[in-house]
Amino acid sequence: MRLLILTLMTSFFCNSQEKYPQDYFRSPLDIPIQLSGNFGELRPNHFHAGFDIKTQQKEGLNIYAVADGYVSRIKISIYGYGKAIYITHPNGYTSVYGHLQKASGTIQDKIIELQYDQKSYEIEAFFKPNEILVTKGQVIAISGNTGGSEGPHLHFEFRENKTENALNPLLFGLSVKDTKKPVVSSLMVYPIDNESVVNSSKRPISLNLSLQADGTYVSEKVLASGKIGFGIISSDFDDVSFNNNGTYKIQISDNGKTIFSYEFDKIAFEEARFINAFIDYDRYKKMRNRVQKLFMKNEYKLANIKSNINNGILNIVPNYMDTEKIEVSDFYGNTTKITIPVSYSAGLNVVPVEPKTTKYFIKAKSDTNFEKDNFSVFFPANTFYDDFYMNFDVKNKTLFLHEDVVPAHTNFTISVEDSVSSASEKSRMFIAAVNGIKLGYNATNLVGNTFTCKARTLGQFKLVKDTVAPKISIAKPIQDKWITGQKSISITISDDLSGVKTYNGYINDKWVLFEYENKLKRLTHTFADKLLLEGKNNLKIVVTDNVGNSTIFETQFNRSQKK
Predict the structure, then answer these.
(1) CB-CB contact of 340 with 324 (8 Å)
(2) SS3 275
(3) What does the alpha-carbon distance between residue 503 and residue 184 come to, in Å, rounded to a whole number?
(4) Considering the entire predicted model, what is its pTM?
(5) Most CB contacts within 10 A, which of 62, 169, 244, 459?
(6) DSSP 3-state assignment of 504?
(7) Cβ(18)–Cβ(9) below 8 Å
(8) β 515-517/481-482 pair status
(9) By the 8 A CB rule, do 142 and 154 touch?
(10) What is the rounded CA–CA span in Å between residue 362 and residue 287?
(11) List of E strands, 264-313
């Protein structure tokens, strides 16, 4: 059987030319698909790369391999996808299953083996085609809520092996009934530069929409001069999920020609952070809504976008009078249409907007370095998408680095000199991000008297010292108690400043697996009789934070091995 599967896989890898097979894959669940998140949905710092499939608001549902293949990767993390399994299929695709509670059968056995070999809950392993074979419909896992999940569900993806791009599951026939048109909740128009005016304003403004008898919309008239662009807030609903999901396709046309469009058939992970250029980031940070800009002021390389030579920007000159059209569509072709009448206006009675200038100017395509007092910041070329004047200052030993309304695409470097603190004090110090009274840890290096860290979000930073060890507690003390019938034990751990870095548990001086659920601050060990002694057993937990402060918790419990 193993030889037959391998032979078929080799044949498929070499000969398959089928593009997006419709009947090859089955559903990963035995219940009708309902989505809490769809492909391409707008998320913080990324586009959603798969389906979030509802699991009836509970954990424990069987997860099935969608086709024959082999387990090519397993990753267990306290963040992201949590417990995740990757299955490579012989037709050139890989399916991904995330936020799992646990794997099944030989896959779970392999995970436990690796965790004990590495003495770590968090692992990542890659496998060859002949190591862990699976068949279509085989139970590979149980659904859960691990990692960055905010509630029980299955995160599911298809990836193209050749490019490693994520692909829209709808392309493979994993359908969801959908007869509803996308919803447009806001239409915005943007003056692109200081010379542009829209409806007597030099700032972005919202346009009223009027529903027509035929189901289309007409916006209020746009009177403009200079360069302008449009943006919308849109969402989509299907017939069964009852969730506000992302939009599949949007295009805007001028004089019958498409000037800017995008659709989400695939996503390249290396382009995911371009979402912060794709949306109006300033508005998102201030108002928590995501306007999808239908233009690029400065071009960025998001493959989903197709645009004309002007990147969707219109130049409104004297005698200009035309109608722009926006079409917002879902995967099944349900479409919402918007007509926007635009004409030239000289822009009289415009309230001037004085540009805010500082002596710290960022030229996006050039390296930039700013210094004050004992702080310095280096921004490599292309850290930012656009040129801008930065607010930069150091007050009360705190670096004020603008505010998080301008997105950074890549890391920049913050350095702090400290020639006063002792070596012992420096060993417990790091550069923290300051958010009100909350301090966030940044991995920090120390060379001589200089602390450095990488950051990718503007805001406030300061050098802080953490001398407080993590906290360890147990809700139900077990000291000297008989807990023979107890299947597991849970421990709560936390650290109030630099954060938990390592956690290890020992029974009778032997390392044992404690699973860590970061969002619940909970360590859980499931007892295995082979690791226990008859009668008294010693339990020790060691937790260390990111600067080396450590706490040890010890207790004893009794256990009977007799059946």
Answers:
(1) yes
(2) helix
(3) 47
(4) 0.93
(5) 169
(6) strand
(7) no
(8) unpaired
(9) no
(10) 25
(11) 266-267, 292-293, 305-307
